[in-house]
């Protein structure tokens, strides 16, 4: 197996253009599992560990730009205020050791429907920055996933960053699993209030071949919420929102849970997270994790 | 394909030639004879292979040795400096083990916990921060007490 260890992004893109079969690796928390168990024998690995700009975050055009290899631990410590939904999701990833190495770029590259960051990225309308020697393009995250563990990346492209607008309202993330650590989500739900746009963003995880938003639920709740003079939500509205989220899912039966359970649980997660986020918006100040 | 690398393990430079697929864990155990980190699951679930790389706790089974070229790797065996490390002492004080297989990983992880936090930790916080390390003997009450003690001493 060849091992490329470029020192700069330009070198990495040149290497990826020349060796399209090279698998990019940053923290290794996903790729290494496949290697150790011989599920995958790549001809080459492209180690992104030395590329400084992939490990930095900052502001660009009013958005937070997170380098693809910034580990979850730093998102939690350094970006929790600006991106509370993503930080909540990051807190549920693996274990502290995994969070010291794993990154959003890796989650996107793997494009597993169970990746923890996807629901938060969808709810916040993140954009994925993708680069190759041909140039750089931005892809809205809802258009990024194309199938189970598939995404829009061309063979010569690398994920270089995600761009997310800082939160303008309450955000929530909820995940069902057998314990708190080292859990692949049975299902997960991300929610973000966007009072500036008078809308609510959603994201479903482990509930369909790809992570996806619950578009009909978003449209329904946008008409129900009174952003000018916010009032507590009727239980019937919360339940309808939950039902529409469940309808947006097309889950399967697998070892982690049945499709019926996933639909039920998603309705519950959606109802609760909307209730918490709206209470916070009303000034209740509740910002608890699920 | 082979690669020549140098790992700085427990304070000593260790040049070694490894196949590029070799993990830090296998390099330590099979090539450098440092059997302190243990191979439990080989996919990041159990935490028995936890070591400190440049001061941060990582799972050595999920890190390629070639990617750690030049890095400072600290195993539980390298923590004692004449006297036992306070975390090692606390594990003995509180009987934080039974069979001992997970212990080097638990201890490296606990050192990482102290590094990542400042001051006293509640039992719930210790349990959360140590959640990446499994103990099949179920010595958790002793492990949590040991980390609490070490965190208290650090303050």
TrEMBL record, chain A:
Q: What keywords are assigned to this protein? A: FAD, Flavoprotein, Oxidoreductase
Residue stretches making up the FAD-binding PCMH-type domain: 1-169
Q: Which domain of life is it from?
A: Bacteria
Q: Does the keyword Oxidoreductase apply?
A: yes
**Keyword Flavoprotein carried by entry:** yes
Query: A Pfam family matched by this chain, by name?
Result: CO_deh_flav_C
Q: Which InterPro entries match?
A: CO_DH_flav_C, CO_DH_flav_C_dom_sf, Diverse_Substr_Oxidored, FAD-bd_PCMH, FAD-bd_PCMH-like_sf, FAD-bd_PCMH_sub1, FAD-bd_PCMH_sub2, Mopterin_DH_FAD-bd
What are this entry's molecular-function GO terms?
FAD binding; oxidoreductase activity
Protein name, entry field? CO/xanthine dehydrogenase FAD-binding subunit
Source species: Labedaea rhizosphaerae
Please spell out the taxonomic lineage of the organism that makes this protein. Answer: Bacteria, Bacillati, Actinomycetota, Actinomycetes, Pseudonocardiales
Automatic annotation (TrEMBL), chain B:
Pathway stated in the Swiss-Prot or TrEMBL entry: Alkaloid degradation; nicotine degradation
Please tell me whether the keyword Hydrolase is annotated for this protein.
no
Q: Name one GO molecular function term.
A: 2 iron, 2 sulfur cluster binding
- Going by the entry's taxonomy, the superkingdom of the source organism is recorded as Bacteria
Instruction: Cite the PROSITE patterns for this sequence.
Output: 2FE2S_FER_1, 2FE2S_FER_2
Q: Pfam families under this entry?
A: Fer2, Fer2_2
Listed A to Z, the keywords are: 2Fe-2S, Iron, Iron-sulfur, Metal-binding, Oxidoreductase
UniProt entry tagged with the keyword Iron-sulfur:
yes
Coiled-coil region(s): none
- Matches recorded under InterPro entries: 2Fe-2S-bd (IPR002888), 2Fe-2S-bd_dom_sf (IPR036884), 2Fe-2S_ferredoxin-like_sf (IPR036010), 2Fe-2S_ferredoxin-type (IPR001041), 2Fe2S_fd_BS (IPR006058), Aldehyde_Oxdr_Iron-Sulfur (IPR052914), Beta-grasp_dom_sf (IPR012675)
Q: Tell me the ranges covered by the 2Fe-2S ferredoxin-type domain, including all copies.
A: 3-79
The entry's protein name is Xanthine dehydrogenase YagT iron-sulfur-binding subunit
Instruction: Say which species the protein is native to.
Output: Labedaea rhizosphaerae
């Amino acid at each position: 197996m060849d091992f490329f260890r470029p020192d700069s992004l330009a070198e990495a893109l040149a290497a990826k253009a020349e060796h399209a079969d090279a698998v990019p690796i940053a923290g290794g928390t996903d790729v290494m599992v496949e290697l150790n168990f011989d599920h995958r024998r790549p001809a080459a690995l492209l180690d992104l560990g030395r590329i400084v700009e992939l490990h930095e975050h900052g502001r660009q055009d009013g958005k937070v730009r997170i380098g693809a290899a910034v580990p979850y631990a730093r998102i939690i410590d350094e970006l929790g205020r600006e991106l509370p939904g993503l930080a909540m999701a990051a807190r549920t990833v693996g274990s502290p050791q995994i969070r010291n190495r794993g990154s959003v770029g890796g989650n996107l590259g793997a494009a597993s429907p169970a990746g923890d960051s996807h629901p938060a990225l969808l709810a916040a309308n993140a954009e994925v920055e993708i680069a190759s020697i041909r140039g750089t393009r931005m892809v809205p995250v809802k258009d990024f996933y194309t199938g189970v563990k598939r995404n829009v990346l061309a063979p010569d492209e690398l994920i270089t960053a995600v761009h997310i607008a800082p939160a303008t309202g309450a955000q929530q993330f909820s995940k069902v699993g057998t314990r708190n650590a080292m859990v692949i989500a049975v299902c997960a739900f991300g929610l973000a209030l966007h009072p500036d746009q008078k809308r609510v963003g959603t994201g479903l995880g482990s509930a369909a071949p790809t992570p996806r938003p619950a578009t009909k639920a978003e449209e329904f709740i946008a008409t129900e919420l009174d952003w000018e003079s916010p009032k507590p939500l009727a239980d019937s509205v919360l339940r309808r929102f939950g039902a529409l989220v469940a309808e947006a899912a097309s889950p399967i039966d697998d070892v982690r849970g049945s499709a019926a359970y996933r639909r039920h649980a998603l309705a519950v997660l959606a109802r609760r997270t909307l209730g918490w986020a709206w209470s916070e918006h009303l000034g209740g100040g509740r910002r608890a994790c699920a | 394909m082979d690669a020549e690398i140098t790992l700085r393990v427990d304070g000593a430079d260790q040049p070694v030639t490894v196949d590029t697929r070799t993990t830090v864990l296998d390099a330590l155990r099979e090539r450098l004879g440092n059997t302190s980190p243990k191979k439990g699951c080989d996919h990041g679930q159990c935490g028995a292979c936890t070591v400190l790389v440049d001061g941060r706790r990582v799972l050595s089974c999920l890190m390629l040795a070639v990617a750690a070229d030049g890095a400072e790797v600290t195993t539980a065996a390298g923590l004692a400096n004449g006297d036992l490390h306070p975390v090692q002492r606390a594990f003995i004080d509180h009987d934080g083990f039974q069979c001992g297989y997970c212990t080097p990983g638990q201890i490296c992880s606990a050192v990482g916990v102290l590094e990542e936090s400042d001051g006293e930790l509640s039992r719930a916080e210790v349990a959360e921060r140590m959640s990446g390390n499994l103990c099949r003997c179920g010595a958790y009450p002793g492990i949590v007490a040991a980390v609490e003690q070490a965190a208290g001493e650090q303050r």
